[in-house]
Structure formats: C-alpha cells, structure tokens
C-alpha cells in the first residue's frame, strides 16, 4: 500500500525567478493530487499569491550561508519533518541543501535536489560546497545543458548519485496565452509608458546584471539605428537592478553615448508579463553566460512572439532555430542586430507561422503540467521503493 505523499520544498526566496515559480506551481499541483504540500522559505514576492488552504508556509532563514543559521535550520526543519511526517524533502539551492542533507539523515526522509544553475567554481572548496546538491536520493537537472554540465564538472560524484535525470522546467501556457490578453490592458500598458502603438517594441526581460547582456543589447540597438537605419522603435529593459546601481549607471552612460535616450525605457516591474510580451514586436535574451534553462525564451514562444536569444546554454534546447525563434552568436552585438533586422523584415504570415510553431513547441515540451507530473511521479517512486 502506497504512503500518502507529504512534500516539503525548501527554497531561499520565493521571488519571480524560474526556480521560484516552479516551486510555486509544484506546491499547488501536489495538493490537487491529494498530497500534502509545504514550503520553507525566507520570504519573497510570490508569498502573497500562495493559497494558504493548499500549501503550508514556514518562514526560515534558509537563504543564509551563516553556519550558525544553517545549524538552527537543521533543528527547526528536523522538527517540521518529524511533526508533519514529511516523506519528501525537495531543496532547490545550495545553502539550504546543507541543512536539508543533515535533516534527511536524521529523519530518514527522502531528499531530492534540483540543479537550477551551473554553480561555477574556481577552487576545490567552492566545488565541494556546490557538490552538496549531488548528495541526495534523486538529482534533477533542469535541462540537458545542466545535465551535461554536472557530468563534466563533477565526474567524481557521478557514480555516487542514486538517481540522476532531466525534468525540463515548465510554464503555465494558459497564463501565457495571447488569446487571453484584453486590448484594454495592452492600451493601458502602452499609455503608462507613453509608447506610440505604431512603434516596434523590443523587450528584454531580466534583472540588470552584467551576465544578462544588457550592454550587448544596447550596442545592438545602436547598430539598428546607425547601420540598418531604424528610427521607429523603442526598447524596454524590464527588470530590477537589485541594488546594482553602478551597473545601471554604466548602462545609462552607454545609452547616452549612443544617443538612445529617447529609444530605451527602464521598467523595474511589469504588472503583467503576458501583457508586456503581447505589446512587443520581438523579445531578446542576450545572456553572455549560459542560461540554465531560459525561461524568457519559453514564455515568449508561448505568447507566439519571436524570440532572439544567445546560442548558449538552455536556449539551444528551448528554441528551434529559424523555426520558433532565432539564435545569435553570444556576446556579438553585430549578430544580434542582424537577427533583429531579419525579424523586422518578416511579413505577417511568416511571423504568424513562427509564433504558432513556438507555442506548439512549448505546449509539447515545456508546459507546467508535464513538469509537475514528472516530478510528482519521481516522488511516488521514491516513497514506494
């Protein structure tokens, strides 16, 4: 007889990132499967959207790398696991993984880890710190790129992994559906930013940080204006600087240098990402380091929007080049501007074909139901083993 599934997910913060949204989606899915669902986190913007009737929340300093706080987390999480009879502990980041590893040993509950990033290292100590993510009953890689990265960078740990598999992240294709967008919301969004509806809108979502490639993007915009002669466009840099004021000032200086002041808008947060995608002519992901998955690329395709992304990391898996979007040479602003020019020259029929292909691609491979079901199935196998 199978046991009732009781899952505690542990994540540093519940913000708007891909790992966090995946945690949120899975937590609510579990309750629909008549399982008990719990989340331990330090806070975050998504907390207010959690259905407290379906998911029990614990606020703990699980984001901290402080050894004393890690020790305190071990004691508290051990109590939670024993009191609520948790049988699956699922951790999604390194700092809480150290707490959860010892909790699983003390309580004998099954430990699942999801590798959401490359977790680069430059010394053996950092590598050992990262490797805690591989010391679980089941290691999940969020993409084939991450799977290959783990095999290449952590060969000495591979033989010790009990179960190692890929479960692609998924998005809610009903939420990211262009047919659900109201024209009034589109008009309101454009009016708020004072954007002429006749302009081509180039959207680049992502927090303002160097590896996301905002500098490459701005240089490509200059190419569009000078080399290709485009004047009637506006670019939106959608994302918070998260305290990186110096980097934002660097971007502003670059914009001023290219005299793009009237062509680039900084927007910290969009009330509705589907609406932001909907008003846009093309979406850009210009990361100069590999994205573990590339959620922006998937969301854009679901919204039937052309996506132009760096040809590294997860984007090579989520985008079918020249069919559902375009890949450009990473860190090469000339390559990016060339691809944007190509998109702008496509007729409506070609854009519709690309958009429809993109949505079908996401519905088939990267929908949230598939991600949740695959993870749930692995949980069941672990507790019934």
Descriptive report:
The protein has 385 residues and is an alpha/beta fold. It folds into two domains: 6-170 and 367-383, Glycogen Phosphorylase B (Rossmann fold), CATH 3.40.50; 178-365, Rossmann fold, CATH 3.40.50.2000. The protein is 44% helix and 16% strand. Strands 3-2-1-4-5-6-7 form a seven-stranded parallel beta sheet, with helices on both faces. Strands 10-9-8-11-12-13 form a six-stranded parallel beta sheet, with helices on both faces. The radius of gyration is 22 Å and the shape is globular. The termini are close together.
Provide the fold topology:
Layout: E1 6-10, H1 18-32, E2 36-41, E3 55-59, H2 67-83, E4 88-91, H3 94-107, E5 110-115, H4 124-130, E6 138-141, H5 144-153, H6 155-158, E7 164-166, H7 183-192, E8 200-205, H8 214-226, E9 233-238, H9 245-257, E10 264-267, H10 273-279, E11 282-285, H11 295-302, E12 307-310, H12 315-318, E13 326-328, H13 333-344, H14 348-365, H15 368-383
Parallel strand pairs: 1-2, 1-4, 2-3, 4-5, 5-6, 6-7, 8-9, 8-11, 9-10, 11-12, 12-13
Helix pairs in contact: 1-15, 2-3, 7-10, 8-13, 11-14
What is this entry, summarized?
The chain has 385 residues and is an alpha/beta fold. Helices cover 44% and strands 16% of the residues.
What is the assigned CATH homologous superfamily of the largest domain? Answer: Glycogen Phosphorylase B
Q: Indicate the CATH topology of the largest domain.
A: Rossmann fold
User: Topology as H/E string?
Assistant: EHEEHEHEHEHHEHEHEHEHEHEHEHHH
Strand order of the largest sheet: 3-2-1-4-5-6-7
What oligomeric state do these chains adopt? single chain
Radius of gyration: 22 Å
| Beta-strand segment tally | 13
Compute the average pLDDT.
93
Low-confidence blocks of residues: none
Number of helices: 15
* Fraction of residues in H or I helices: 40-55%
CATH class identity of the largest domain: Alpha Beta
CA(first)-CA(last) distance: 11 Å
Count the domains: 2
- CATH architecture level-2 label of the largest domain: 3-Layer(aba) Sandwich
Helix vs. strand class: alpha/beta
């Amino acid at each position: 007889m199978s046991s009732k599934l009781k899952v505690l997910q542990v994540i540093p913060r519940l913000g708007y990132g891909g790992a966090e949204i995946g945690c949120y989606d899975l937590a609510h899915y579990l309750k629909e499967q008549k399982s008990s669902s719990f989340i331990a986190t330090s806070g975050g913007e998504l907390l207010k959207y959690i259905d407290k009737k379906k998911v029990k929340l614990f606020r703990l300093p699980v984001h901290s790398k402080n050894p004393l706080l890690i020790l305190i987390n071990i004691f508290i999480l051990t109590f939670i696991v024993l009191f609520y009879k948790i049988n699956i502990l699922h951790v999604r980041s390194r700092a809480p993984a150290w707490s959860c590893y010892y909790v699983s040993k003390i309580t004998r509950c099954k430990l699942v880890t999801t590798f959401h990033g490359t977790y680069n290292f430059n010394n053996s100590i950092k590598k050992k710190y990262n490797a805690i993510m591989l010391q679980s009953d089941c290691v999940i890689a969020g993409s084939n790129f991450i799977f290959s990265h783990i095999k290449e960078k952590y060969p000495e740990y591979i033989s010790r992994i009990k179960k190692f598999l890929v479960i692609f992240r998924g998005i809610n294709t009903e939420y990211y559906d262009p047919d659900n967008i109201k024209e009034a919301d589109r008009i309101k969004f454009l009016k708020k930013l004072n954007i002429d509806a006749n302009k081509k809108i180039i959207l680049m979502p992502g927090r303002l940080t160097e590896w996301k490639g905002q500098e490459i993007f701005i240089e490509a915009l200059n190419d569009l204006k000078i080399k290709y002669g485009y004047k009637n466009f506006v670019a939106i840099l959608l994302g918070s600087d998260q305290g990186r004021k110096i980097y934002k000032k660097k971007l502003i200086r670059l914009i001023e240098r290219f005299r793009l002041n009237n062509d680039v808008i900084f927007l910290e947060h969009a009330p509705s990402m589907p609406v932001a995608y909907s008003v846009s002519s093309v979406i850009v992901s210009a990361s100069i380091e590999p994205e573990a998955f590339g959620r922006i690329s998937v969301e854009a395709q679901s919204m039937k929007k052309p996506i132009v992304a760096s040809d590294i990391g997860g984007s090579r898996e989520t985008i079918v080049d020249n069919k559902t979007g375009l890949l450009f040479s990473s860190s090469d602003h000339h390559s990016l501007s060339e691809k944007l020019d190509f998109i702008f020259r496509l007729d409506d029929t070609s854009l519709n074909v690309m958009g429809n292909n993109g949505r079908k691609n996401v519905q088939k491979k990267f929908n949230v139901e598939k991600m949740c079901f695959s993870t749930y199935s692995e949980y069941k196998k672990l507790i019934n083993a």
